[in-house]
Design brief:
The structure is a single chain. This protein is an alpha/beta fold. The chain folds into two domains: 2-198, 3-Layer(aba) Sandwich (Rossmann fold), CATH 3.40.50; 199-434, Rossmann fold, CATH 3.40.50.720. Helices cover 45% and strands 14% of the residues. It has 18 helices and 14 strands. The strands form three sheets. A six-stranded parallel β-sheet has the order 3-2-1-4-5-6, with helices on both faces. The termini are far apart. The mean pLDDT is 96.
């Protein structure tokens, strides 16, 4: 099949590369000439483990290409995927559909025969019908159906998520569109991965409901962690005991400094806004959004206590600034709240992150970037473990402590234990919920 992928951001690029590895002919489109030039040169503009190798393989096989010309990509395509950004709109918290609607109009004008226009971007309920209207208005004679095909990719594990999904959700209204989408995902169907067919609105809602629920699990365990600190319980034991219940499950029950990233913050806000529009308030989701911000501020207060009540004049080492490991994504990362508070309080910061510097240099002014945690800890009054990169999971704690002026650690990801930190020479070790 021929597939056009409109947008080469995280979702579009990963999806396009993986579809080409299924054996489809895929043309990825973007309006940014620099990005297309880089992709044509074999450079991957995002960090995602294994993506560079898979992209090179399929380009070499002639199944994957990149262009600025949308009309060229859409001509003769069986499926045209919209995978452009839907950032939070300023002022009202809704998803900004400007790029989606512009793509729909341009696709409508470019269609040369029957195709399914597939929305992969995360969009509010009802958007796919608006996509159909926009494409139809641009070209009343166009022959197409629309489909909703939300993505469920975890950054850092996106290729495996695409190739071995928990499920594929496809919202369609005609048998013709369903057959095209079945052919698109045929390699997964043959390996018996579940493909769930629904109506358009249900597919759109599944994406928001799933992300809001996961954000709720994270926020719930973070609230429990705060209570554990007061009553003397250990959140690791609590999470383990909860997670062994099959009705709950152990995923997303790890206490930390709050959720971030490209999906949860944006999607929870959008779901709350949808609820307001339809006079069905999403009270749990609204509370999750509020509590998540409070959790980040609670982390700042925790760090201030470790600095004897003031950041002024302190040297602080921050290990990890991306919202999670194995990605360079800084969007809504807890570091974007915590680090500026430290700098604003007068601290001198040295920051180490395996992939975060490229984005972080613009987002986190006033810090010094170093290559290793030991460089970050040199002469420091506090080391803050903020992202659980593998590089930070097996550090030589004794070496780290000896580098510091005051050996104190705030382990905001609960990687270590107080016993091993104290044995390594740390005079103070603080975690979350313990």
């Amino acid at each position: 099949m021929k597939i056009a992928m409109i947008g080469t951001g995280y979702v579009g690029l990963v999806s396009g590369v993986c579809f080409s590895d299924f054996g489809h002919e895929v043309i990825c489109v973007d309006k940014d000439p620099r990005k297309i030039d880089r992709l044509k040169a074999g450079e991957v503009p995002i960090f995602e483990p294994g993506l560079d190798v898979l992209m090179a393989k399929n380009v070499a096989a002639g199944r994957l290409s990149f262009t600025l010309d949308l009309a060229e990509a859409v001509a003769g395509a069986d499926a045209v995927f919209i995978a452009v950004g839907t950032p939070t709109r300023r002022g009202d918290g809704h998803a900004d559909l400007t790029y989606v609607m512009a793509a729909a109009e341009e696709i409508g004008r470019a269609l040369t025969g029957y195709a399914v226009i597939v929305t992969k971007s995360t969009v509010p309920v009802g958007t796919n019908r608006k996509v159909a209207e926009a494409a139809r208005a641009a070209n009343p004679a166009a022959d197409f159906d629309v489909a909703s095909n939300p993505e469920f990719l975890r950054e850092g594990a996106a290729i495996d998520d695409f190739m071995r999904p928990d499920r594929v959700v496809v919202g369609v209204e005609t048998e013709k569109a369903r057959k095209v989408m079945a052919d698109v995902y045929r390699p997964l169907f043959l390996r018996e991965f579940p493909v769930v067919y629904t109506g358009l609105e249900s597919a759109e809602m599944i994406k928001y409901a799933a992300n809001a629920f996961l954000a709720t699990k994270i926020t719930f365990i973070n609230e429990i962690a705060a209570l554990c600190e007061k009553v003397g319980a250990d959140i690791k034991d609590v999470s383990k005991g909860m997670g062994m219940d099959g009705r709950i499950g152990n995923k997303f029950l790890h206490a930390g400094p709050g959720y971030g990233g490209s999906c949860f913050p944006k999607d929870t806000k959008a779901l709350a806004r949808i609820g307001q529009e339809y006079a069905v308030p999403m009270q749990i989701t609204e509370t999750v959004i509020k509590v998540n911000e409070e959790i980040k501020r609670r982390m700042i207060a925790k760090l201030e206590d470790l600095c004897d009540g003031s950041f002024n004049g302190k040297t602080i080492a921050v290990l990890g600034v991306t919202f999670k490991p194995n990605t360079d994504d800084m969007r809504d990362a807890p570091s974007l709240t915590i680090v500026p508070a430290l700098v604003g309080g007068g601290a001198k910061l040295r920051v180490c992150d395996p992939q975060g510097q490229r984005e972080g240099e613009a987002l986190l002014p006033g810090v010094k970037w170093v290559d290793t945690p030991y460089q970050a800890a040199q002469g420091a009054d506090l080391v803050v473990l903020l992202t659980e990169w593998n590089e930070f999971r097996a550090m030589d704690l004794e070496k780290l402590a000896k580098k510091m002026q005051l050996p104190r650690m705030a382990d905001l990801r609960n990687i270590y234990s107080e016993d091993e930190a104290k044995a390594a020479g740390f005079e103070i070790y603080t975690a979350v919920g313990r």
